[in-house]
Amino acid sequence: MNYKKQIIIAGILLFAGLLSCGYFIGRGLTMFRTGERTVTVRGLAEREVMADNIYWPVAFMVTDNDLIQLNEKIEHNKQIIVEFLLKHGFKLEEITFSSPSVVDVQAQLYGMDRQYSFRYLGKGVVKLNTGNVDLVLTAADNSSSLLTEGIVLNSDEYQNVITYSFKGLNSIKPEMIAEANINARKAAEQFAEDSKSKLGAIKSASQGLFSIESANYNTPEIKVIRVVTMVQYYLTH
């Protein structure tokens, strides 16, 4: 009987020891987790740049009852537009053409109940690709002079508007990321100071996507580039 009691008592003591050990281990892990203090901050970098690539489709329309004469009008208008662009300082290699489109308006169903003074409607596009923003702005302001040459511009369609873009992003990416990281660290340092802590090493960091937008509707040639980085720092006492 004494031997059995000794086994039972030993088992109870062992069980109590395991419970106590588990408690202190769990307590230690809890203290370790709560002892890790961090702060997560964001850093913004922003730049204003001028567009370095401009696509300007100078679109026009002509009408006639004869296809041969219609084609002659298209070629004549193209030549006038090219001369206009060259006069404003653009290079011939910056100018290309789209294949003209011709519509037989009398053959269209929607034209059966309507009388037209012409049979064929032709559309052409002289395309300009350049990096010279100043020349584009000047030429666009003077494009109404083409009307005096008898050219009917077709700029109302969405595909015929001037498009400004910036393709030199890779050249400024490193500087902007560095600037965003500096701004993130400044924010973290301020947080550490306010919380009576010291800023430690970086725990984790991530870079957001770059965004490129027009500064506003009236100045599409000016682009605003933004990037946000997120950095998590350790805080120490």
Walkthrough of the structure:
The chain has 237 residues and is α+β, with helices and mostly antiparallel strands. It folds into 3 domains: 35 residues; 88 residues, Protein of unknown function (DUF541), domain 1 (Translation Initiation Factor IF3, 2-Layer Sandwich), CATH 3.30.110.170; 113 residues, 2-Layer Sandwich (Alpha-Beta Plaits), CATH 3.30.70.2970. The longest helix has 34 residues. The radius of gyration is 36 Å and the shape is elongated.
Characteristic key phrases:
Translation Initiation Factor IF3; alpha+beta; 38% helix; Alpha-Beta Plaits; 237 residues; six-stranded antiparallel beta sheet; four-stranded antiparallel beta sheet; 3 domains
- Along the chain, the helix and strand elements come as HEEHEEEHEEHEEE
The rough form would be described as: elongated
Number of domains: 3
Structural class: alpha+beta
Q: Distance N terminus to C terminus?
A: 59 Å
CATH superfamily of the largest domain: Protein of unknown function (DUF541), domain 2
How much helical structure, as a percent, in the residues? Answer: 25-40%
* Count, helices: 4
Main sheet properties: 6 strands, antiparallel
Backbone CA Rg: 36 Å
Poorly predicted runs of 5 or more residues: 18-34
State the CATH class of the largest domain.
Answer: Alpha Beta
Count of individual beta strands? 10
Mean pLDDT: 85
Query: Under the CATH scheme, which architecture of the largest domain would be assigned?
Result: 2-Layer Sandwich
Percentage of β-strand residues: 25-35%
Question: Which topology of the largest domain does CATH recognise?
Answer: Alpha-Beta Plaits
